[in-house]
Amino acid sequence: MNDIITVTCIGIGATAVMDIWLVFLKRLGVQTLNFGFIGRWIGHLLRGRFSHEAIAKAEAIPGELALGWFTHYAIGVAFAALLVGLAGVDWAASPTPLPALLLGMGTVAAPLLVMQPAMGAGFFASKTPTPLKNCLRSLANHSVFGLGLFLAAVLLGWATR
């Protein structure tokens, strides 16, 4: 049970670090994630529809923004569980940055290969006006998530000593 709490705290913490980064980018005028669209996609997925030509044009789902935020944090916790599963429970007790950063960078595969194509943006954002820029932005965001995994584990270790 303690491991589940540890993983959950690391995942929530890392996702919060990513969200702080996204708020910073938004204040600089950079377009960031629309969690309502994630919720809309999940809502349609639960109704049996996986892909859309353009998620922005798909029928709205009641509570899609809340569903999007919940999904965002649930995915963060799942990726934290993957990290602890791969690096070991000992990593959570004595975290080092490299496994967290590598896993964080690897998580960029989820949006580039699954979510964006399913939402109508194409593989590697190929159907957007600036695919390379969007891919690099996703990689930066997920690298920040990886940093967040490390920072959350360090903070959790400090708080529980």
UniProtKB/TrEMBL annotation:
Keywords: Membrane, Transmembrane, Transmembrane helix. The keyword Membrane applies. Pfam families: DUF2938. The chain crosses the membrane at residues 7-25, 73-93, 100-119, 139-159. The keyword Protease does not apply. This is DUF2938 domain-containing protein.
